[in-house]
Amino acid sequence: MQGAEDEIQIVAETDSFPLMEIRHFQEDTESWDFILVSDLQKSTPNRDYRRQRFLNELERTGFTIKMIKDKNRLFFGIRAHSRIFTQYMELLKDTSCSWPHNLSAELVPTTRIRIVSFILGKKEVNGEKFEDLKKDHVFETRFPLHKREECLQSNWAQWRDIFYKQPIDDIRNYFGAKVALYFAWLGWYTVMLVPAAGAGLLIFLSGFSLFDASQISKEICEARETIMCPLQDHQGQYWRLSETCTFAKLTHLFDNEGTVFFAIFMALWATVFLEFWKRERARTVSNWNLYGWDEDQEELVLELINNPDYQLQKHQHSYLHSMAILICSLIMICVLIGMAHVLVVYRVMATFLFSRSAWSFLKRQLTTAIVVTGALVHYLTIVIMTKVNRKVALKLCDFEKPRTFSERESNFTIKFFTFQFFTHFSSLIYTAFFLGRINGHPGNQVRIGGQWRLEECHPSGCMMDLFVQMAIIMGLKQTLSNCVEYLSPLLCYNIRKLKVLSQDVRLHDPNLEEWLKNYSLNEVNIFSLFDEFMEMMIQYGFTTIFVAAFPLAPLLALFSNLAEIRLDAIKMIRLQRRLVPRKAKDIGTWLQVLEAIGVLAVIANGMVIAFTSEFIPRLVYKYLYGPCSQGSNTTVNCLTGYVNYSLSVFHTKDYKEQIPSQGGEVVTECRYRDYRNKDDYNYSSEFWFLLASRLAFVILFEHVALCSKLIAAWFVPDIPQTVKNEALEKKFNLIKKHCLSSRSLMCREDGRRI
Length: 754
Fold this sequence. Notes:
- By secondary structure, the chain is an alpha+beta fold.
- Among the domains are: 7-144, no CATH class; 319-459, no CATH class; 721-754.
- Helices cover 62% and strands 7% of the residues.
- The protein has 25 helices and 13 strands.
- α16 packs parallel to α21, α17 (462-501) runs antiparallel to α18 and α19 (528-544) packs antiparallel against α20.
């Protein structure tokens, strides 16, 4: 290489390029499709040779290359000649009936960048691709240049536009259809969250209106003589039921009669949201002329442009590989479920340690402290296991050997989301359906290692545990995650900018300043957009799956998404290098993920209402055991006596060990939450009737909700009739044109014969 002030411009010398094409390029020599960067500090003769060999191959293919050297790096501007794009459009025209008649209509910057990126990634010289050269430090990186997009800068990537509609068409013209569809989906999801958030807030506020009117809360607050059995062994003491008065009132905010209707509403909401999104998606991609786009067709065209001798790589399937992947996935799922058990052990150990703490506050609010710290530990586990899940999913995808990148992305999506689902929701599933239900009873508690007693539910009920855990995890994810997602790129960008632009560089070429500015931006990878989708899918899961226990979830998601759209816009426009545009006609596998979450939400919410909340026991007591059970007119509240009905009796003389402290008073009986006989502590007849009622409710709820989902899905067509008619009309006109051309040709041939 020559000195720092030298510049080398390599122009492809071949007779195959028309004179008009070369003249057109010379008029616009400062526009570049891609920039390649090499680090001179890692330069060796061997690496220089391999770099030049790769550049020569690009030159031979039909690229113009301009090199600029600064103090520490070599920058190579890459521009493809129009012959490549003409070939691309001609091949698609010959194989696609939906291709526009005006070939120049698709010759846009996003198309150029996508084709050049594909060629750079697939170009192979002596068995080495660009990624191989990058791993060996022959090249440092490659990226397309950001252009000045005043529309996106001023009308999209600004906080003042937080409540305005996004310029989806402008996003598509700059970042490609795949990114535009992500923002279109995110915007649609955010708009649809408004009625869900309003309904959840209404349910929550309705609980406030009855804050002091709940009969159950009144009985708990007045139960000063009701002595409860200790919730822990070490230094455990009897306590009064009235001590949970405040928590009983708070529980009524989200565990009331409106919870069932809200859960059904959310099941319908999820279906309507997806169905209307399908219509919006069809309408959008139809306007972009991508309604009939075939991804496999485009991939084959690009392969042939890159290598005319390309041999078709067919789909392959191996039962042995599939079995190995299935076994590895199941092992990973078992590990993730084991992590949930580790959290259970933590809470048991924390109960033991906190009960012996010198801080009186921890002793008084022991259960609340356990729930809060357990949720924090769960959040840290999520952060750590997310990195592990990604690596395992990538390894499994590599072992599977998918045919194309899109197929690899789809397989990775399914595996990674499955792992993430168990990471995020295993602990919540335990809290909702197992916590406090496998503990035995006072005097005969289930213990870990025969020593530590399993954790009980919160004194006010298991719904409080689930509510607190959901609130903490979702609150942290919506606040900390958004802050880290924005502040981390901002900090990295400022550090890179300071490091790159502070060097003593003579900007003898006007391109160098622009290239350095783009180089100083944060790197992006092929999964940058994938990470954004995954974050939203997990949020969607929290918003729907356990929404019966946390009706404020849609409201939190709404506020988070309003910020998320602008954070992603600012990040993509100002802090990150330009994403390589990709074509797409839908959001791909993510749609199946959304549909799966919708089904899981119906099942989970039905089980939460049946087994976690007090809805079924209250209903059974009201109509079978309470003062209104005989149907007689009475002024007494129908739930009068419910608290006494829901508590079992334990004789303190039956404690075999770990006898609780009686605090100066003689306690012969204590109460605990369960349905057991007073004499032998076996399950009572009320327990079995309640269990049958819970199961019947789950079956009824799921059938009603799923049938409603199916009816809603049938009632709202996936594709608007206008879109179908437009596609049908295009096909008809194209076939008619071919038919007329064929007739004209036949007439000319007949004339020659005559």
